[in-house]
Structure formats: C-alpha cells, structure tokens
Amino acid sequence: MMDSQENALNQGTEEVKLSEETVAKAPTEQNEATAEGLNQSTETQSKCEAETYSAKTYSTKKEIIERLKAIVDSDDTPEKAEVDHLKTVFYKLHFAEREAQQRAYIENGGDPEKYQVLPDEDEEVFKAEMTIIKEKRQRHSLQSKKRNRRTSRRRRLSSRRSKRWLQLLMRQTRTSLY
Question: Residue 55 in contact with residue 26, Cβ under 8 Å?
C-alpha cells in the first residue's frame, strides 16, 4: 500500500525526468522566449521566470544546498518561485534516499517494524539555510511596507497642500474680480 508521500515521490521522479528532457530542448526555446519577452507584460514575464526555475534540475541535495547558500550570501531578495522549487526538489530527493535506505535495510533481513530513520546532516543544513532565507524575505517585506506607508503619507500630505493652495488661489481670484 502506497501512502501520499510515496505517490508524490513517484510523481516527482517522473517530473524530474520530464524536466531533464525539457532542459535538453531549452537553448532554442530560451532564444525564442527572449525575443518574445520584450513584448510581454510583467505578469507574463514572472510566469516565465517561475517556469525557468522549474526547468533547472538538481541531481543531488548538495547542489541544492550550494544554491541555497548562494542565495543567502547574495544581497538580492530571493524569488519565491525559485525557493519553492528548491524545497520541492530537495524533499523529493530526500524521500527517495530514505526509501532506498529502508528498502536496503529490509532486503538485508531487517525488521520493518524496527527500522528507524536516521537524522540527515543535509536536511539540517537545508533547514538552517531556509530559515535564513525566510528571515531575509520577511525583512524585505517589512521594508517595502514601511516604504509604502511613507509614500502614501507623503501623497496624502501633498494632496492636502495642493487642496489648500487651490482654495487660496480661488479666494484670491474671487477677491481680485470684485
């Protein structure tokens, strides 16, 4: 009997195979997408970026961790689509490794009831890097909210000043006419 994690893992394996085929075709498609990208709206371009992240394939957890470390070290705010893709691929690989270890344990005569999942160092590093990325995204979000508040406050003040200025001009115009 397969549980939902195993089903998701099998689907993930199929997706990785499909994405590897997509990567082989990607160079010509990227040239076409670049030419079309100049005419697309920003919404469409963000969808293309999300597809680009899904086209990148990682064959090991170490590669994913290296990419996460690069994201943490950069000053840029990480893209949500890329982070989600890295997380999905990491856990697909992680669950595949666990399943392989469990199968090997059982094939070597181990009791399935006594099998224990051993802590994985890569998973701990992954979680630590993801925590840093989450904090980085939260900081960026708070900064942009503050910026938006300041901008809206300035606009309100500017609008009030403009109204007062117009009222003053109108009064002056009325008095000068009489």
Answer: yes
Tell me how many degrees the CA angle 118-82-14 measures, rounded to the nearest 5. 65
- 65 within 8 A of 125, measured Cβ to Cβ: yes
pTM: 0.54
Per-residue pLDDT reduced to its tens digit, 65-111: 999 999 999 888 888 899 999 999 999 999 999 999 999 999 988 88
Length, in residues, of the chain: 178
Is 135 within 8 Å of 52 (Cβ atoms)? no
Name the residue with higher pLDDT: 15 or 160. Answer: 160
156 versus 76: the higher-pLDDT residue is: 76
Q: Tell me the two tokens of residue 175.
A: 């008095």
> Do residues 95 and 9 make contact, with C-beta atoms less than 8 angstroms apart?
yes
CA distance 140 to 79: 12
CA distance 77 to 140: 7
DSSP characters for 134-174? HHHHHHHHHHHHHHHHHHHHHHHHHHHHHHHHHHHHHHHHH
DSSP conformation class of 3:
-
